[in-house]
What we know:
The protein is mainly α. It has helices at 2-5, 9-22, 26-42, 46-59, 64-80, 86-103, 109-117. Helix 3 (26-42) packs antiparallel against helix 4 and helix 5 (64-80) runs antiparallel to helix 6. The longest helix is centred in the C-terminal third of the chain and has 18 residues, at 86-103.
Amino acid sequence: MSAQSEGNYAEALQNYYEAMRLEIDPYDRSYILYNIGLIHTSNGEHTKALEYYFRALERNPFLPQAFNNMAVICHYAIRQGDSEIAEAWFDQAAEYWKQAIALTPGNYIEAHNWLKITRRFE
Length: 122
């Protein structure tokens, strides 16, 4: 993790891939996959990041930070893409934020407010 915190993403990825090769515990693997997703997010590789967040959640469905990051990516994609599909991306972001909030009530206040403002919070 020190390579990642120092911004040496290539080295960090190598370390995480090696950790994935050695680690057998699904819970621990979920955090490794999550961290790989973080690096891809930092590099602007959002499709790859989403893939790793999904893989992390398959092993550990109690990672609110993964749901949050997926929602942020969806929300960001709206600003970059076609306005016709924007509503679908907003809906997907809303679903991820709802899951993050359900896992950690009281966190993600800005997301909670966005859900209320856009009338997506039930």
